[in-house]
């Protein structure tokens, strides 16, 4: 991986990196924070939301003080493939910046939009090979990235010790963002969509025995709460399946990184407790 920038922060090291991805067939960028010391350290992967790059979380979330305190590497990849020859759409909620953490099966997206494989196979391998990790990891994210964190953990529980999310798209098969993206990337077969819907996966029991708790923070002043995010579908699914999901409705908070910066330390602590068991 090519190092683009390096910064000292909270006694540790933050690197911006770029590499040629086998999964997407494009260059991919990411940031990695490594605490002070020789390690090895467990890893928390962060997945960002619509329109974001690796830089939004890196510069706005304020996560590295907690990561330094608890001794956790944090990895923040870009949200999609990008570049010349990569399919795109003029809308903010499709195409570059809107990968939805699935492997597209439909044209023109299928050649490059393979974000599930990128995160669960290629990225994990690169981080374990290039940084002093324990080989144990957790995953979290925001909005579209919250959907990604939940579904990737539920679909690949052997890879992740724990999962949490901020304002996730809880059931993309039942909201406009998800319906638009899944139609484009996966086609019209809703049985394929259901394989990437966190609420439906939890309802089907896939989390039982894999995760003792799933932490969700949601602001009650979030403008996307009712039409797009629908956290009540997650809690209903969890109740039906006997799965513990802790949903914290935070009064007055919106969809911005001010919300995440206010509670990110709680999430790092939540994951650390499970990463170091």
Please explain how this structure is put together:
This protein is α/β, with parallel strands linked by helices and 277 residues long. Helix content is 36%, strand content 22%. It has 10 helices and 9 strands. It has helices at 54-60, 64-70, 115-130, 144-155, 176-186, 190-194, 198-203, 225-229, 231-241, 257-275; strands spanning 2-9, 12-20, 27-34, 41-47, 73-77, 133-141, 164-166, 214-219, 245-250. The chain has a 6-stranded mixed sheet with strand order 1-2-3-5-4-6, with helices on both faces. A 3-stranded parallel sheet has the order 7-8-9, with helices on both faces. Helix 2 (64-70) runs parallel beside helix 10 (257-275). It is globular, with a radius of gyration of 17 Å. The mean pLDDT is 97.
């Amino acid at each position: 991986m090519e190092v683009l920038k390096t910064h000292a922060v909270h006694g540790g090291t933050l690197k911006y990196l770029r590499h040629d991805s086998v999964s997407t067939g494009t260059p991919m960028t990411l940031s990695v924070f490594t605490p002070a010391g020789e390690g090895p350290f467990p890893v928390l992967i962060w997945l960002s939301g619509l329109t974001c790059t690796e830089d939004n979380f890196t510069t706005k979330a304020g996560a590295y003080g907690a990561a330094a305190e608890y001794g956790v590497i944090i990895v923040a990849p870009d949200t999609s493939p990008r570049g010349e020859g990569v399919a795109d759409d003029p809308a903010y909620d499709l195409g570059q910046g809107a990968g939805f953490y699935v492997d597209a099966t439909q044209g023109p997206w299928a050649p490059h939009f393979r974000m599930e494989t990128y995160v669960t196979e290629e990225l994990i391998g690169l981080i374990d090979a290039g940084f002093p990790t324990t080989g144990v990891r957790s995953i979290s994210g925001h909005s579209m990235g919250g959907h990604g964190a939940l579904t990737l953990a539920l679909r690949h529980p052997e890879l992740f010790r724990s999962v949490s999310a901020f304002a996730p798209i809880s059931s993309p098969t039942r909201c406009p963002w998800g319906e638009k993206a899944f139609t484009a990337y996966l086609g019209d077969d809703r049985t394929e969509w259901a394989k990437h819907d966190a609420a439906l996966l939890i309802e089907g029991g896939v989390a039982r025995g894999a995760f003792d708790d799933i932490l969700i923070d949601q602001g009650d002043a979030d403008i996307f709460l009712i039409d797009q995010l629908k956290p009540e579908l997650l809690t209903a699914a969890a109740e039906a399946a006997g799965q513990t999901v802790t949903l914290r409705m935070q009064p007055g908070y919106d969809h911005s990184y001010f919300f995440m910066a206010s509670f990110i330390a709680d999430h790092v602590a939540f994951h650390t407790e499970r990463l170091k068991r």
